[in-house]
Amino acid sequence: MLSPAGQSTPSAVNRRRFLKVSFGGSAALVAAPTLVSWLGAADAKAATSPLPFVDDYRTNITTNLTPETNAVVRILGGFAQVWKTGAAWNTGTPLRPEILRANMRYCIAITRSRTEAAGRQAFVYDRQHQSYAMIAGLGPLTDLYKTGAKAVTSITSAPDTTPATTISDAAPADAPAGSAIGAGSYTSDLGQVAKLVDTVRGPFASGNPGKYAFQYPRPWRMNENSEVVDTGKTDALGFPVYDSKVVVVPQLLRQRGTSATDDGGFPSGHTNAFHLASLAFAYAVPERFQELVTRALELSHTRIVSGMHSTVDVLGGRIMATALAAAALADPANATLKAAARAQALAYFTEKTGTTADTLSAYAHSDASDAYADREANARANEPRLTYVLERQGRKTPLTVPKGAEVLLETRLPYLTAAQRREVLRTTALPSGYVLLDGFEQWGRLNLFAAADGYGAFDSDVTVTLDASKGGFDAADVWRHDIEGEGGLTKHGSGTLTLTGHNRYHGGTVLAEGVLVAGHANALGQGDVRLTGGTLRADAPVRVRGAWAQESGAVLDLTLRGHHGPVLTVSGRVRLDRGAVLSLRLDDDRPPAAGTTVPVIDSSALRGQFDRVELNSDRLRAVPVYTADGLSVRLLKR
């Protein structure tokens, strides 16, 4: 394990001093997810007021190995409730043996059931530059990015047997002039994006201090009970043989670290690198935000498949990367760079694809062969990888979102304020009770894939403004969660917001401007709905649990389908002010026939009438038929 440039490797004496002082006390057994709870008594007083991670991330260097001196070691402190570090690399003690046994059993099962193809793939992602490996998360934009960034790799396949030497990625001999491995060349058309990736993966983003701090062995050095047992034998390559059932990919046998002291497993450095690159790319290309997060989780899983890391190693790598990416993106020193990278990516991709800021996202999801084209499949694959073998215990407590975390959503949800993005992170976070995720500031609870789909709950009233003139997500976005809570939603601005969840929020819905799309029968929650302006559109029947009020100038836009019930069902009263408009469209697949009467609104009582009823047909016209509790339209030929 090599130390990053400019960082010295701690001496064995210093490591032993750290291990005895910081993780040797009985305080590590306390379950509370606070810093003081897992520090020794001598260190508790000094740690009562630690700086937020984003203000202290530059302390992550190998000369700082204690939670008091290293912010990364501090946020990974949940692991100290699972593992008590010993005075040497092979003398640690499981504090939660049931978790670490489950960890090893998972690794054994995965590596013993691994297919040859999966092993070969794991080799590629072990040896390939991690930033380059993440580029495939761009889907239809991948080849354009590689060309524009002049990004190359020499690792494209796995050898048939164990290589005779160690292998590292490099620019191929036939690569175009100016090419670079990883995210690409700084002098390319996407040089600012490449530089942002490298900056997020900068000198304070190493996993080495954490490895030295926790001294948790690689899985291939441990047996099923998380014990290190050296058999005294060596294999054909000269490596010590341990009493382990984990099977390392044959092609990676010679790529293993030779110094066990300098080759800890927790946290996984590759996992850290994958997620750091993922979040940097996602900032610059938010049109592929969820797909990049998914790819980072997928590539991190190959660390387990390869036999090189365990589940807890991978979880640790994700936790530290989430915090480190937020810190780098929130650092004022990087403000100009991150803005330039986003602007450069948008300009480059819209030019190369012939799209605009409004249509680039659709293009970025236009390829059915894209490995990440199925959003629901991505969500299913991601969910178990956020917790792996951990089992939830204890009561559910709300997350206090770490300072600066909201920057991770800055380009994906640009129309929200920083405070609102924090609410999105809070309401979509994983529940408390997962011991490794409940460390200092609880960065491990953030679920960025879910956060990209908007609010999970309205715990207070939410006012959102989308501006169509700004383009991209500012102009139109979709919130996909089943939103709960006592608060309500008010929509302002000229842009379009679509709600696709089975929403149960109670505070009501107000549309003041722009377009609000009800993409689910229960998209509008359980409260009243009031249209003071703008257009509310529903392509399928929708239900309102409260009352409905529509003021002058506001438009209700509904689709009519043959042989169907009311398009809008309102449990309470409907009030239509003078000047209210009803716009009707005929369903393309099952339009109602001429001469039929189609129910449109059903309510407990209806007062008032629409100022006009429009129908988008050149052969039919809609004649409204009002009753005391609803509205139908008779479709007549023109």
TrEMBL record:
The keyword Signal applies. The keyword Signal applies. Residues 192-329 form the Phosphatidic acid phosphatase type 2/haloperoxidase domain. Transmembrane segments: none annotated. InterPro entries: Autotrns_rpt, PAP2/HPO, PAP2/HPO_sf, Pectin_lyase_fold/virulence, TAT_signal. It comes from the Bacteria. Gene3D superfamilies: Phosphatidic acid phosphatase type 2/haloperoxidase. Keywords: Signal. This is Phosphatase PAP2 family protein. It comes from Streptomyces asoensis.
